[in-house]
Write a structure and sequence with these properties.
Blueprint (H helix, E strand, L loop, with lengths): L4 E4 L4 E2 L8 E2 L3 E4 H5 L2 H13 L30 E2 L15 H18 L9 H26 L16 H4 L6 H18 L11 H21 L4 E2 L5 E3 L6 H13 L17 H10 L9 E5 L10 H5 L15 E2 L1 H4 L16 E2 L2 E2 L14 H6 E2 L4 E2 L2 E2 L5 E3 L24 E2 L9 E2 L5 E2 L20 E2 L21 E5 H17 L7 H16 L12 H11 L6 H7 L3 H4 L1 E3 L2 E8 L4 E8 L6 E2 L11 H6 L10
Helix pairs in contact: 2-4, 3-4, 4-6, 4-7, 6-7, 7-8, 7-13, 8-13, 13-14, 13-15
Length: 636
């Protein structure tokens, strides 16, 4: 039989300092014997596959794609979780990206591995061979999931294709149905679960990673079956876009059962947690994202300076903590996101309460309004005046110098997107602020060190900054591009519990009464809420799908999950219909010596709209031109 050569990643990945895609060390062209005959060769091959696995981590954005160094276009800035100074983008992924081709290269890697390794099986134990084959199937399944959630049904390639062994026409494989792709993913993950070990090296799949990924993929399929309204059928009757609604129960059950396989194998991170101690609960949640021994981590992507890095800290720290690169505060959580959490004054409609009787409420410190907020909020978002890296983060919109006898009336009418008036308000156009002399003789910078500078590119535009995943003790000298190396947690146990709860509530709504699905969902949600320091649910009567979705948004905020959740729930076009997200601007009243908050629409008037055709992305035109058997998605 003909020997094929293969390009492998020999040892380590190399990141260039320029803003370009992931590259590797100069490749070696070697024969199969050099790769598959030794554990070291197989390790190198595995390293290549895992490094190219299409997961949305620190180096992903819808604008720039996967494994891209320069990410100043965060996913959260398209979902309503956050505002970005540099991006007012939609939830449409850039259709010029190479995702399609990159994914099929990974699939070929996995297929080649699965076909070639058995020829060398005598060199290894049965367990080794089975484990490695399980990893290959895991990688293939995760890669097909990256494709199907973007494009719907795609060509199903489960073997190595080579020309001229196969003719050109044989290589022009048509798209399979969306349902068939999800079933294929489920089968691959079942194989991986059966053959993978219970534990593996960090960054490599275990049997429970396979089960967790299956809970995610099957939940996605179930929601597509239930909520999708877009259909595309080819000439053979294959449903390329959409899944029959009758399959929703099947997929939700598969998601639920897969999640249940992790019972007793992982647990929510509670190493520093203490009942009733909000500060301990806050610190516990912060620490969770940096503890390599966390019992919650199921599948991670590791980074290590200097050979593999990202720039998360440099782009996202509050301005007063930024390094020499001059980047900061790219992710500015919206008030809409903050209002999802419990524990601060709210109006009847759930919005933050900032006025009483038409006059602003006054606070001695900006943190006072959040004094009773659930600890998970503080661990996710830097609130104005909270402490980070040992300093108070100063976020102000300005200093109010007008009269305050009888209270201060709203500075702008409700619903206004106008800029604040200059009368009676001292504001700053940039970070070089002229300190204002207060009546007591002290001085104050109008916007603080990290506040809203109307002409600056490094400031908070929402009144908040991001805390999740920011390294708590990274020195300012290291807050640079190409310098962060914290681990990305792609799958953690909290998500699996949320998958399980969502599937359970959906099954209950679909009339499945063979199990106590609603009671189980109640148990999982309360476990997450307890760890978060939130108020516990008191019963199942009001446990709706909206309650589960809200909990998911809070728990998984800024982990690149809401982008795909809004798409699979088919709610993006409803939530983003010329939508302007809201901000919370702290002001200091000079005459009162106290603060008030103005909750308002983003004064930049940034509007977000989602076109329903974007639920299925455009197949690259170059691929369509290569094969007339590929049918383009609707609307393109």
């Amino acid at each position: 039989m003909k020997k094929y050569t293969y390009t492998i990643l020999a040892f380590l990945l190399c990141w260039t300092t320029a803003c370009k895609k992931l590259d590797t060390l100069p490749p070696s062209i070697v024969k199969d014997d050099d790769v598959f005959a030794t554990a070291a060769g197989i390790q190198a091959y595995m390293s290549r596959m895992y490094s190219e696995l299409p997961i949305e981590d620190f180096r992903y954005s819808p604008e720039r794609g996967l494994n891209m160094f320069w990410i100043i276009s965060p996913t959260s800035a398209t979902t309503g979780e956050a505002l970005s100074r540099d991006q007012n983008g939609s939830m449409q992924e850039n259709t010029g990206l190479s995702t399609w081709g990159d994914c099929y290269r990974v699939i070929r890697d996995a297929n080649y591995f699965a076909e070639t390794l058995p020829k060398y099986a005598s060199n290894f134990t049965n367990d080794q061979v089975n484990n490695w084959l399980g990893e290959a199937r895991f990688v293939r399944a995760a890669t097909y999931f990256a494709l199907v959630k973007r494009y719907g049904g795609v060509p199903l390639v489960d073997k190595v294709l080579n020309y001229p062994e196969q003719s050109i026409e044989e290589l022009k494989i048509p798209r399979s149905s969306e349902e068939k792709i999800y079933d294929f993913i489920g089968t691959d993950l079942d194989y991986a679960y059966t053959n993978l070990p219970e534990t593996n090296q960090a960054g490599r799949a275990s049997k429970y990673a396979a089960a967790g990924f299956k809970s995610r993929a099957m939940l996605y399929a179930g929601t597509i079956a239930k909520y999708n309204q877009i259909t595309l059928v080819d000439g053979s009757g294959n449903r390329l876009c959409g899944i029959p609604v009758a399959k929703a129960v099947t997929y939700f059950k598969a998601a639920y059962d897969a999640a249940a396989l992790l019972d007793g194998k992982y647990s929510l991170y509670k190493k520093a947690w203490a009942a009733g101690d909000k500060n301990a609960q806050y610190l516990n949640y912060v620490n969770m994202f940096f503890d390599a021994s966390s019992p919650e981590n199921i599948f991670v992507r590791q980074y290590h300076y200097p050979e593999s890095v990202h720039g998360y800290d440099a782009y996202n720290v509050p301005r007063q903590l930024m390094g020499a690169n001059g980047y900061s505060s790219e992710v500015n959580p919206t008030l809409d996101f903050v209002e999802l959490f419990d524990g601060f004054p709210k109006n009847a409609d759930g919005t933050i309460k900032t006025t009483t009787g038409g006059k602003y409420d006054l606070y001695t410190n900006t943190m006072d309004i959040f004094a009773n907020a659930e600890p998970r909020l503080r661990a996710t978002v830097v609130l104005p005046g909270d402490v980070m890296k040992g300093v108070s983060i100063e976020i102000r919109r300005g200093i109010y110098t007008g009269p305050s006898a009888g209270g201060i009336s709203p500075l702008l009418p409700a619903g206004s997107t106008a800029h604040y008036p200059t009368d009676n308000i001292v504001q700053s156009a940039n970070a070089s602020q002229t300190p204002y002399k207060l009546p007591n003789g002290t001085t104050m910078n109008p916007a603080g060190l990290s506040g809203y500078f109307t002409g600056d590119g490094t400031n908070s535009v929402s009144g908040f900054s991001i805390r999740k995943y920011i390294v708590p003790d990274k020195p300012t000298s290291e807050v640079l591009e190409n310098r962060s190396d914290q681990t990305w947690i792609e799958l953690r146990y909290a998500e699996v519990l949320l998958n399980r709860a969502e599937a359970a509530v959906e099954l209950n709504a679909l009339g499945q009464s063979d199990k106590s699905y609603l009671q189980d969902a109640f148990t999982q949600i309360n476990a997450i809420r307890e760890r978060a320091g939130a108020d516990l649910l008191t019963g199942t009567a009001n446990l709706t799908i909206d309650v589960v979705r809200k909990e998911r948004k809070k728990e998984l905020g800024f982990e690149n999950k809401q982008y795909w959740d809004m798409r699979r729930w088919r709610i993006a076009d409803k939530e983003q219909n010329s939508t302007i997200y809201r901000t919370l601007m702290p002001f200091y009243s000079a005459n009162d010596g106290k603060y008030f908050f103005d909750a308002r629409l983003d004064e930049r008037n940034s509007r977000y709209t989602f076109d329903v055709r974007w639920y299925y992305e455009q197949i690259p035109q170059g691929e369509i031109q290569k094969s007339q058997n590929l049918i383009q998605n609707p609307g393109y």
